[in-house]
Design a protein that fits this description.
Layout lengths: L2 E7 L4 H19 L7 E7 L5 E2 L2 E2 H4 L4 E8 L5 H19 L7 E7 L5 E2 L2 E2 H17 L1
Parallel strand pairs: 1-2, 5-6
Antiparallel strand pairs: 1-5, 3-4, 7-8
Length: 140
């Protein structure tokens, strides 16, 4: 159940938003092996005159930037999978947004299964329910 939040510089563009949401969900499902039907994407726009890197606004710097945050359940992905995701996501956003500041970033957030969930239920609870079902079947 990944939660994806992309904050990027500039003004909203509905066509770009649709494309970015679809492409980011696809990358997350491909590289982090998540289910598309449980993937949430939120897009946020930050005016360039209100985004600062090293004390200079993007407006003055003349570049774009982004911060991509993807929340996943801890211990569900390897370091290699996360590294591949970082590379692919940065490449995608470099192409789509263009002229990126090098401090644009991707943050994969590993959340404890006891603290992360949806529908009022934690991922740990879901895991335990699944495990108990498998144990009961094996004992039959």
């Amino acid at each position: 159940m990944p939660g994806i939040i992309l904050t990027h510089s500039g003004l909203p563009d509905p066509a770009q938003a649709d494309a970015l949401a679809a492409e980011l969900a696809e990358l997350t499902c491909r590289y982090l092996k998540k289910e598309r039907g449980r993937t949430m994407v939120m897009l946020r726009h930050q005016p360039k005159d209100q985004w600062y890197i090293a004390g200079t606004s993007l407006e003055k710097d003349g570049r774009n930037s982004f911060r991509l945050e993807v929340s996943i359940t801890e211990e569900t992905n390897t370091k290699d999978e996360k590294a591949a995701f970082h590379k692919a996501a940065f490449a995608l956003l470099s192409e789509r947004l263009g002229n990126l500041h090098p401090h644009s970033n991707v943050h994969v957030i590993d959340c404890r299964a006891t603290s992360y969930g949806y529908g009022g239920v934690t991922q740990e609870w879901r895991y335990q329910q699944g495990s108990e079902g498998l144990v009961a079947q094996a004992g039959e």
